[in-house]
Structures are given as C-alpha cells and as structure tokens.
Amino acid sequence: MKIIILAAGIGSRLGNPFPKPLTPLNGGKSIMETQVQNLSEHFNKHDISVVVGFKKELIMEKFPDLTYIYNQYFDATNTSKSLLKALQKNRNEDVLWLNGDVVFDTELLKVIKQEIAKKNSFVSVNHSRVAEEEVKYTLKDGFVHELSKQVKNGLGEAVGINYISQKDLPVLLSQLENCDDNDYFERGIELAIQNDGIQVKAVDISQFRCMEIDFKEDLDQANNIF
Fold it and tell me: What is the dihedral of CA 91, 93, 99, 102, to 10 degrees?
C-alpha cells in the first residue's frame, strides 16, 4: 500500500507565506511533521509520497527522504487534480491519502489499519459535528451516497483521510479525470459511487481528535486540543 499527502495548495485562507503543511503547532512540530511521524508509527515511511506545488522546495528540503509528485498547475487546480496525478503514479496499488492540513491522533491509525486490511474503500468521517463549510456525507444501503460541501442534512463530516482499494482505483482515476479543475477530490469519489456503483464505506473516527486547519481559528483550536 502507498500513502499520499496532498500538499500542493497555496492555503491562502490561513495567510502563511509558506505552504500550509509547514504551519507550526504549539508542540514545535509542523502539521506535516506531525503527520509523517504518526504515519511512520504504523506504516513504512518510504511508502509516503507528497503532492507538492506552492513553494515546493520548502517542503522537499524539510522532508528529503520522502517521494514527491509535482502539480505544476497548483495555482489553477484543486485537490481532484493533485490526487489524480498521484494515483496515476500508483495504478497497481492500494492507496491511503490525506489532506496536508489535517491534524489527528496517532491512535486513529489503528482503526484505519483494520479497515485497510479488509481491502474495502472508505472515507473517514466524524458524525459528532456537521459544519456548513465542511465536506459532508449521506449514506444509502450502508455506504456513502453523497459526498460534498453542498450535501443537505449531512450525517457528519469527512475528515480528509481516505483509502481506495486497487480494485476500485481505475474507476476513481477515470472520474477524477472527469472532474473540473476546481473540484475537490470528493467529487471524484461521489461520481464513482453514483455512476460506477463502487462501494465506499464511512469509517467513524469520531472518538479521536482530528481536524483540518483552514483558518487561523482552526489553528488556534488545534493548538488547544492537541
């Protein structure tokens, strides 16, 4: 299995002059440094690839032992196209991927590993909150049905940690290609579910601390929580 961190974006909402994954947390480590440390406790660090774009050299210099994929259109595309580039490099693999701005408890990965062992594609969700600006989901027949920020009456939030099995990867690749440049990768998952019938599980990680950092208020909250 391969692991992908999506870290190409400018992250303008946080207002940093450097890539958002390099944002320092109170403990002294950056968001991405914390991610890599947590992932390395449960998986092989050398299986991690990072999609970079904005000021890519800063990330590459900080993490010289990781593998990199360059999205040269980082300023004109969204995460659907960054993920597409990464999956094109890993067509024959199971893939776990996460947004480069998500902070989480390492214990969360124990639950994730159990699901990965079942080889069933999934998105990690938190059903304890449903914020308007977050990606939300609904279920149908026990699997994810809708997945976007526009979902009405969402059951919870997708937290930005996801897994696609090798058997489902070709379909997701095709649908990511169909996505508009400004689409989030969740649109590709939603299209693969609704047009191709793949089954994507919603894995509940609500008992763990996990959040994405988009705004300064998120950063302040993360520093308080973690």
Answer: 180
Integer Cα distance of 18 and 173 in angstroms: 30
Q: Which residue has the tokens 């080889």?
A: 119
The Cα–Cα gap between 79 and 148 comes to 13
- Write the DSSP string, 20-59: GGGPBPTTS-BHHHHHHHHHHTTS-GGGEEEEE-TTHHHH
Q: Report the alpha-carbon distance of residue 52 to residue 60 in Å, rounded.
A: 8
> Quick one: how far is CA 126 from the chain centroid?
14
C-alpha to C-alpha distance for 24 and 156, rounded to whole angstroms = 28
The structure tokens 């994405």 sit at 212
Neighbouring CB atoms inside 10 A of 197's CB total 9
Question: pLDDT tens digit string along 3-62?
Answer: 999 999 998 888 889 999 999 999 899 999 999 999 999 999 999 999 999 999 999 999
Cβ pair 87, 79 in contact under 8 A: no
Burial tier of 27 (Cβ tally within 10 Å: 0-12, 13-18, 19+): exposed
Q: How far apart are CA 188 and CA 171, in angstroms?
A: 9
Does pTM surpass 0.90?
A: yes
